[in-house]
Amino acid sequence: MIRVLVQVEAIDILAEFDLHDAGGHGASASFIGRVRGDDDLRELFLEHHPVMTEAGLADLAHAASDRWRLSALTLIHRIGGMAPGETIVFVLASSPHRAEALAATEFLIDRLKTDVMLWKRETFADGRVQWVEPRDGDHGRAERWDA
Amino acid sequence: MALTIAYFAWVRERMGIAGEMVDLPDDIADVGALVAWLGARDARGAAAFAEPQRIRAAIDGVMMGPDAPLSGAREVALFPPVTGG
Fold first, then answer.
1. Is the domain defined by B2-79 classed in CATH 3.10.20.30?
2. N or C: which end of chain B has fewer CB within 10 A?
3. C-beta atoms of B80 and A114 within 8 A
């Protein structure tokens, strides 16, 4: 079961865990990415592509499902404006065994930073607005999964 | 050749438009040539495409490098390196 969502609404993490709890999977691993409040950040805005953002996330979810034995996989990314502390991205992978759930989760969070059409724009308390630049290490982490 | 171009993030802001239809000169054969052509076309293009190495592209929904040919393309998306997650 693969569940991929791109949404403006807040992510209801507990409801997503409930779906995996109900599946009786042996192991679940998760990742939650939140908006940091550095430098008096007031808003983080995620721009997306109307088609390719969700398609890119679905491609990654299927790649993870092909590579590891997953019994359930949830991948949700928010778009639009959000405040510090809010969840931007949520990954939940379930498998009969922990190693596969953990590996799939790390693969997904690494690769979605480099492979999916999303762009972050920061607005600060003093009115400054800037687009986020990729971190130097992002590509290295994503390429570790090339095989 | 008629081509639809879509712009995203700061490329969209600097171009001042989310997208456009262009009639491409015949000698613009790949993504890199398209970026150079847009960069030389007007002041907005110059602002958006001054650093071609910072531009990424997708042709009809598939991410492509600067050498990717435009023949047969319907829509090209031009954007900065992605920063999701």
1. yes
2. N
3. no
